[in-house]
Amino acid sequence: MFNKKIDSRIKLVLIFFITFFVVILLKIAYIEMVDYKKLSSLANDLWSRDLPIEANRGLILDRNGVVLADNITTTSLVLVPSQIKNKEEVTKNLADILKVSYDEMKSHVYKNTSIERVHPEGRRLSYSIADKIESLKYDGVYLVKESKRYYPYGEALSHVLGYVGIDNQGLGGIELIYDEYLQGENGAIKYYSDAKGNKINLSELYLEPASGMNITLTIDINIQLALERELNNVSSTLNPDNSLAVVIEPNSGEILAMASRPTFNPNNYKIFKTEVLNRNLPIWMTYEPGSTFKIITMSSAIEEKVIDIYNDHFYDSGSVNIKGSRIGCWKSGGHGDQTFLQVLENSCNPGFVKLGQLLGKEKLFSYFDLFGFGEKTGIDLNGEGEGIIFPLDEVGELELVTSAFGQGISVTPIQQVVAVSSVVNGGNLYKPYVVKSINEPTSNSVILSNSKKLIRKTISKETSDTMKYALESVVARGGGRYAYIDGYRIGGKTGTAQKVENGHYLDNNYIMSFMAVVPSNEPQAILYVAIDNPKNTALLSSYTTAPVARRILLDIIDVLDIKRQSGAIEKVRYWDDEIYYTLPSTIGKTKKEALKDLFYYNVEFSGYGDKVIDQSPSPGTYLSASSTVRLLLGN
């Protein structure tokens, strides 16, 4: 009986131990077969350390693939304090090389951390400094790759592109708005160390960084550079408070160029004031538009059929009196009897007072709303303004008529170019945009894309066609004559708006502007130029902004390959106007015959003989009179 009890206990003990070992074996099997990867990863993380490798930001390109925002490779200093053997020596030498204090460098070298990035002194080092650090061959001192943003065109398009901080984060413009797409995924060099941080002699693992997405803009860099050149010229010759220019494709809302002064260089943004960095004037600035706004009033009047611009007349005596306020015409004594087309050509304020009265406040202000004034356009850039339009219940007779010629209301440049695009494109108000597409950097496959977006209809095609003719007439026969280009149909309207400060108009302080359409019969581009308070110039926009616009238009014509048009309105000629002729062919003619054919030009001969065997420029060139034509003589 006693032996049986002992046998039972032994069996129980054996069963317990067998069960215990089976459980252990099952656990080991589970770890080896199921939990191995997880535990291996945890162990790997316990021993591994990462030296960061910064990813390249995505490129920003113009509509033709020209790189506007690029990356250059630099190096930065990273320390592993536990691996540094002679800390005092390392601190002293690194402080000398980086030109910082001993105490500043000591705070990095002696820091109780696994990895220490030396910031900002050790970021984006020059090659010479990086070579000095590398030559020391210190344990625990590493130089890692970093990507630095680089803008090859400097100041060009700076407010649109924005800029990037030292940690490669977008801080303005496209760089900020699309930062999540432009940022890549950082990589690393993974190494192994013991519990004290000492490097273990195991193979290192390189995790390659992934570049960010590329962004293609609607901008054409060649048109952009034309704007930059002319605004630089304006700054140096007229010393304005500021200036700006915008070019838009009127049939889609695509922005072709946008620039303003003052500006900044995003490669060195830290030296510029915050207000310069953050104010993209073409979308942020609000002001009274002046006479360029007459385009909207005239369009509204034609659409509502309150006038026939060809046959209805207005007599301008020089001024009108509204509620005790005298509203004068810029021309002393007025223009006398005019058609309403001539009212626009002459930019006659009393004539637009009449148009405002004929429309009435409900109709006129409903068109202001229809064309998008008083609200943001929704352009894909940050910092857009709204402008100010009178609430209808605050519009009296005086507010009505002054609004009709662009005074007393406040608008942004982008609102104006979008509205005028609608006037000349058949009455379609499109949302403006700058980003054309976002693309994967390796395959170039499109991730996101923009296309034209119709907001609403504004006017009929018939009204639009009439306005295109009217704006061409302003350039051919009215105040926009200095923007006229022989052989091309240019539409436009000047604007001279007196500035307001603390509720009072300033003396001799104007915003002068010009709105241009090219070509006026089939618009491909709208240009708006505004110069705020130019100095030492005639206080008329026709003399100030129209010539600037003309030079930009010549570049737009060249870049967009706009052909010469027939059927243009014949220009009213003045004594100082350039006259253009089509250059005839003189090849094969005698020297005497060539001189007769080239009566309007300066002729230079080279070579020997009495027959013309070549000429420059070539026959058929549209050339201004008094230009030089070179003829090669031979037998």
Polypeptide structure, described:
The protein is of the alpha+beta class. It folds into 4 domains: 2-34; 50-217, Penicillin-binding protein 2a (Domain 2), CATH 3.90.1310.10; 221-266 and 283-436 and 452-524 and 546-559, Beta-lactamase (3-Layer(aba) Sandwich), CATH 3.40.710.10; 580-634, Trypsin Inhibitor V, Chain A. Strands 2, 3, 4, 5, 8, 16 and 17 form a 7-stranded mixed beta sheet that branches. Strands 10-9-21-20-19 form a 5-stranded antiparallel beta sheet, sandwiched between helices. A 3-stranded antiparallel beta sheet has the order 1-6-7. A hairpin with a 6-residue loop joins strand 20 and strand 21. The chain is elongated and about 130 Å long.
Keywords:
Beta-lactamase; Penicillin-binding protein 2a (Domain 2); 24% strand; alpha+beta; 19 helices; 4 domains; five-stranded antiparallel beta sheet; 635 residues
Summarize this structure briefly.
By secondary structure, this protein is α+β, with helices and mostly antiparallel strands. It is elongated, with a radius of gyration of 36 Å.
